[in-house]
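Re: the request from the purification team.
They wanted to know what the chain is likely to look like in 3D before they choose a buffer screen. I agreed to run a prediction and write the result into the notebook, where they can find it.
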Amino acid sequence: MLKKPDMTESPPILLVAPEGEERRQIQAILEYSEYSVIALAPGALGDLPSGSGFRMAILVCSQGLAMVVRVLRQTLPGVPLVLLRQREDKAPLPSAVEGEIAATLDWPTTYPVLTDLIQRLMCERNDKRPRRSLEL
C-alpha cells in the first residue's frame, strides 16, 4: 500500500503506465524537471490511498483506459488527467473518458511540450481558487 505523499513538499505527479522503457523515459523527464513522481501500473491503482494529494495524473495506457479514469475520478476528484497516446494511435477516446481528460499529447513528445503543458495545467488549477473582489 502506498502512503500518502508528504504535503510539506510540492504535491507529486502520479504517472500511470505499464512497467517498461516508456514509463522510465517519462519518469526521467519529469524528475529532470524536478517534479516528484509516483509511478504505478494501471492494475495497481487499488494501492492508491483515497484523497491522495497529487498535482496531476499522467496516463499512458490504451487498454482499460475507461476503467483507469473511473478509478482515478473516484480516488482523486478534481486532479487534472493528462493522456499520453502513441502518435500512431488514432482511435477515438471512449465517450466515458472524453470529458474527463484535461489534455492529450502524442507520445513521443518533446521535453518543452510536456513541461509547458504541466505548467499551464497547474496555472489553470491554481486560478480556480476563489478570489476576493475589491469594490471601490
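For the purification team: Strands lie at 13-16, 37-40, 56-59, 81-86, 103-107.
Please add any questions underneath this entry.
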